[in-house]
Amino acid sequence: MTRTDHVGNGAGKVYLLGAGPGDPELLTLKAVRALARADVVLIDDLVNRAVLEHVRPQARIVEVGKRGGCKSTPQAFIQKLMLRLARSGRVVARVKGGDPFVFGRGGEELEALRAAGVDCEVINGITAGIAAPAALGIPVTHRDYAVGVTFVTGHTKSGGGPNWQALAATGTTLVIYMGIANLAGICGDLLAAGMRADMPAAAIQSGTCEEQREVVATLGLLHRMVVAAGLSSPAIVVIGEVARLAHGAKGEIDASLRAA
Ligand code: SAH
After folding, report:
1. Cβ partners under 8 Å of residue 216, min gap 6
2. Which of 152, 167, 173, 185 is most buried, judging by how many CB atoms fall within 10 Å of its CB?
3. What are the tens digits of pLDDT across the range 148-177?
4. Ligand 1 center to residue 205 CA distance, Å?
5. Which residue among 66, 177, 237 has the greatest number of ligand 1 atoms within 8 angstroms of its CB, and so is best to mutate?
6. CA–CA dist 243, 114 (Å, integer)
7. Spacing, Cα 104 to ligand 1 middle (Å)
8. Å from CA of 235 to ligand 1 middle
9. What is the DSSP letter of 92?
10. By CB neighbour count within 10 A (0-12 exposed, 13-18 middle, 19+ buried), where does 157 fall?
């Protein structure tokens, strides 16, 4: 007798689950097992719908998109819904793109669930900031080129933005989430902070997905080339020597140096 045979009885549970960057084969085995157990699936709009293949036919699927600028489900509503479902004994899979704790508000949701005494389990996913560069062959911490990697958002809650000047001085690869809308400002700030205009850089839209598109350039030309290529969100921006290792990047970087 399993809990899912008796929806509404017993204690519910929430899986805060990362679905990975897009390629449905990058789901973890744990994620697959939790999806197969769920009574209700709350799914973010960045998540590849192919993951729903693992969900039971009788499970309820709720779309809770919140992509910037589009019609969205308020965070407070999502949290209330999760609480209500778990309290009524449902097993809930809260499915997010990438990893639930990397720029995914998983932290806020976990706090709210814990405060309410709801059983909650975090299931990691592969974050886009590693997977999208890797899809081009960029190893974000290659020891010949970087002392580490910094994951940073190009779009902050306050609108203030990170301290690009300090980041430029770290010697780490910069991996920027949600950086496309403000790319001109970000590149300008990094250049103003003294980062070389010929620093290799890449932008990868829909990394690991069938519709993946990318631009490999130099910092000085990245914004212009991203605009010319029409790249848009969701995209990861990588700035650092490691971007030199993108497949076939040498030609593109040389060409952008000539164009600069
Ligand atoms: N939790 C997610 C990130 C959520 S924030 C993770 O760990 O990956 C949303 C941002 O992630 C997007 O604006 C974009 O910058 C990035 N992103 C998510 N999926 C992506 C993908 N397949 N390719 C490129 N960027 C992606």
Report:
1. 136, 200, 201, 202, 243, 246, 248, 249, 252, 253
2. 173
3. 999 999 986 666 789 999 999 999 999 999
4. 9
5. 177
6. 40
7. 9
8. 6
9. E
10. exposed
Determine whether 102 is exposed, middle or buried from the number of CB atoms within 10 Å of its CB (0-12, 13-18, 19+). Answer: buried
Q: Which of 137, 145, 78 is nearest to 110 (CA)?
A: 78
Q: Which of 136, 236, 238, 239 to mutate to test the pocket of ligand 1 (most atoms within 8 A of CB)?
A: 236
DSSP state of 71: -
Q: Which two tokens stand for residue 199?
A: 């620093």
Rounded to the nearest whole angstrom, what is the distance from the C-alpha of residue 176 to the centroid of ligand 1?
9
Tell me which residue has tokens 């509503």. 77
pLDDT, tens digit, for every residue of 8-65? 456 899 999 999 999 999 999 999 999 999 999 999 998 999 999 999 999 999 999 7
Contact assessment for residue 252 and residue 237, using Cβ atoms and an 8 Å cutoff:
no
Alpha helices, H only, 125-216 = 128-135, 164-168, 183-192
Ligand 1 site residues (CB inside 6 A) read: 21-22, 46, 96-99, 102-104, 127-128, 132, 177-178, 204, 206-209, 233-236
* pTM, to two decimals: 0.92
Position in ligand 1 atom list of the atom nearest CA 177? 15
Amino acid at 97: G
Q: Which residues are tagged catalytic? A: 44, 66, 178
What is the CB-side half-sphere exposure of residue 16 using CA atoms within 13 A? 25
Q: Specify the residue for token string 């097992």.
A: 33
